[in-house]
Specification:
By secondary structure, chain A is an alpha+beta fold. Chain A has four helices and four strands. Classes of the chains: A alpha+beta, B alpha/beta. Bound molecules: flavin-adenine dinucleotide (FAD) and iron/sulfur cluster (2 copies).
């Protein structure tokens, strides 16, 4: 099993997910976050706190988002860790509204 | 350097310590009533969920940071007072969890056979406080009151084939008793409807995947009232929507032969337990829901039915214990606080803080305590910063001699590492990840043996 960040996270960076993660498994690029499937324990703490519902447990992942499983594994391995809350990216609030949250 | 005492070594204690130590402004002494750390990560999380115990590996990393000290075997409020800690430290952070459970408050509650779910959890997890408990697993009918994740854990441990537990760190005494279990029917009862069940979808799904057990529920219970239907369409009701989908799938399964059967029942509350020398069963009152979406209450309809059972576990909430010398919110079972600053009569008490379940009540999972503890630690550091003229404090150099003079045998983190290694070695013989020491004396013997060797 695994827990996956998907496209809704793009350009948000609210990082509420990072603040509740009991392991250290979030990695970030300029645009979004990814979960390291090797370190993640699938505790689910990050899922309900994401303000744009970007995170899914694999079993609940909508079929059109399955490619994100591989993306999370690949990107997390290549990117630096993020362990603390950061500032949302500029425009994050508008994007949140746009996504309907 | 600020000298800070953290009371309790569960998730919130370790996240508080981590945040304080990483600021490089504080030293942390962590006081724990047991000789061993980690709170409910060690004694709550179910033995068949080993991955969920891995946060303890991050706590061990915190313990290795300079400025950290573990003092096990000290009950604050009994062995040392809040006032004494206040004298020795710049601030005290209470992270002592929700150590007692809510009762049903109905006649017959204390009949033998009626238990707190937490007692069962403590027993199968080898908590020294629950060694003396025994559970009559010769009973065929068991009832669990409550539909949260703790209820799901209890249900799963009762329903699982014992062979599926042998390679876990479950306590040996529990494994032996469960091997003899004759429990066949497990009723798991919620006072509200299926859309308000508090399970996470993950815990619920697992109940449908237990080998040689089947799930059953009345499809009529899955017909939602309009307010509940609104709840599961709302983004806030996402977990409930996933739960409903799982329950519908459970209800659609063909009847199967099974060793054990899990019955999900909704809109029922126990109003009395009956029996003679032992529990004989529960009187359940049918409820209806009233109120707006996300604010629906269960109201009794006056219609009752009996459900025979010889074993009952209540899992209807937890609350903290009052700490002598601190204010206490009796109703919520927490220390009254504003974002982690302890308050009395609306005013913050200098140097007194709290985090975790004792701060916000028993909600959220392990990681939830991280954001919660960081909030408390940040307030503490900000308060100490504005208070420029801090006196120096003696910290452990005052505390440790005081504890020794009271005849206490305290454990250090190095002692815990020895106990940890001994448990893992014992477990390896039986193919288990560890075999816990369940008596405090046995834990302490390991420490003194190794010291002597
Ligand atoms: C049965 C059960 C199963 C759970 N399973 C999961 C799970 O699978 N996954 C998950 O993410 N979360 C789970 N949780 C929730 C999780 O355990 C809690 O969110 C978390 O442990 C709360 O942390 P805490 O530090 O506030 O309290 P605790 O973990 O309870 O820690 C409190 C510590 O303080 C100590 N203490 C208490 N009083 C004193 C005193 N007077 N002096 C000194 N020390 C004291 C206690 O001994 C204990 O070590 C479970 C909870 C329960 C009850
Ligand atoms: S909270 Fe959600 S949107 Fe924000 S960084 Fe985390 S996954 Fe991305
Ligand atoms: S599921 Fe848990 S461990 Fe995995 S990323 Fe989310 S919070 Fe971290």
């Amino acid at each position: 099993m695994a827990t996956i960040v998907t496209d809704n996270c793009d350009l948000c960076r609210f990082t509420d997910c990072v603040t509740v993660c009991p392991m250290v498994c979030f990695h970030a690029d300029d645009k979004m976050l990814y979960i390291d499937p090797v370190v993640c324990i699938d505790c689910g703490a990050c899922i309900p706190v994401c303000p744009v519902r970007a995170i899914y447990e694999v079993k609940n992942l909508p079929p059109d988002k399955h490619h994100w499983i591989a993306i999370n594994a690949e990107r997390s391995a290549a990117l630096p860790l993020i362990t603390d809350k950061s500032q949302p990216l500029p425009g994050a609030l508008e994007r949140k509204k746009q996504l309907g949250f | 350097m600020l000298k800070i005492a953290v009371v309790g070594s569960g998730p919130s204690g370790f996240y508080t310590a981590e945040a304080l130590l990483k600021s490089s402004k504080a030293e942390v002494d962590m006081l724990e009533r047991l000789p061993v750390p980690y709170g409910l990560v060690r004694y709550g999380v179910a033995p068949d969920h080993p991955k969920l115990k891995l946060p303890a590996t991050t706590y061990a990393r915190t313990a290795a940071l300079s400025g950290f000290r573990f003092v096990g075997g000290v009950t604050v409020g009994k062995d040392v007072s809040v006032e004494e800690l206040k004298d020795a430290y710049h601030a005290v952070v209470f992270c002592c969890g929700a150590e007692t459970d809510r009762e049903l408050g109905i006649p017959g509650e204390n009949l033998p056979g009626s238990h707190a779910a937490t007692a069962f959890v403590g027993w199968y997890n080898g908590h020294p406080d629950f060694l003396q408990h025994s559970f009559d697993l010769t009973q065929e009918q068991a009832v669990i009151i409550g539909q949260g994740n703790v209820a799901a854990d209890v249900c799963r441990i009762l329903a699982k084939p014992v062979d599926d537990l042998r390679q876990t760190d479950i306590a040996e005494h529990a494994l032996q008793a469960l091997a003899e279990s004759r429990v066949r029917e497990i009723h798991i009862i919620g006072r509200r409807g299926p859309a308000q069940a508090k399970f996470t979808d993950k815990e619920l799904r697992e109940l449908g995947e237990i080998p040689r057990a089947c799930v059953s529920l009345d499809p009529a219970d899955l017909v939602l009232d309009p307010a509940s239907a609104k709840e599961i369409e709302d983004p806030r009701g996402q977990t409930a929507a996933w739960n409903m989908a799982l329950l519908r799938e459970f209800a659609s399964r063909p009847l199967a032969q099974a060793r054990r059967r899990i019955h999900f029942r909704f809109l029922e509350s126990p109003v009395a337990l009956y029996g003679g020398q032992n529990l004989g069963g529960a009187v359940l009152e049918k409820n209806r829901l009233e109120g707006p979406p996300f604010g629906q209450c269960a109201l009794g309809t006056g219609v009752t039915a009996r459900l025979d059972c010889g074993l009952l576990f209540r899992s209807v909430g937890y609350k903290g214990l009052e700490m002598p010398g601190l204010p206490f919110d009796e109703r919520r079972g927490i220390i009254p606080n504003r974002e982690g600053r302890v308050i009395r009569d609306g005013l913050p008490l200098t140097g007194m803080y709290c985090a975790g379940w004792i701060k916000r009540g028993p909600s959220g999972i392990i990681g939830t305590n991280r954001a919660d503890a960081v909030e408390t630690a940040n307030h503490l550091l900000a308060d100490m910063h504005t208070n420029a003229s801090l006196p120096s404090k003696a910290g452990a150099s005052a505390l440790l001699p005081m504890l020794a003079s009271r005849g206490l045998r305290c454990t250090s983190f190095e002692d815990w590492l020895k106990i940890d290694a001994a448990e893992i070695a014992r477990g390896a013989e039986a193919g288990k990840p560890r075999e816990k020491f369940v008596r405090i004396k046995d834990m302490l013997d390991i420490v003194s043996h190794q010291a002597a060797a």
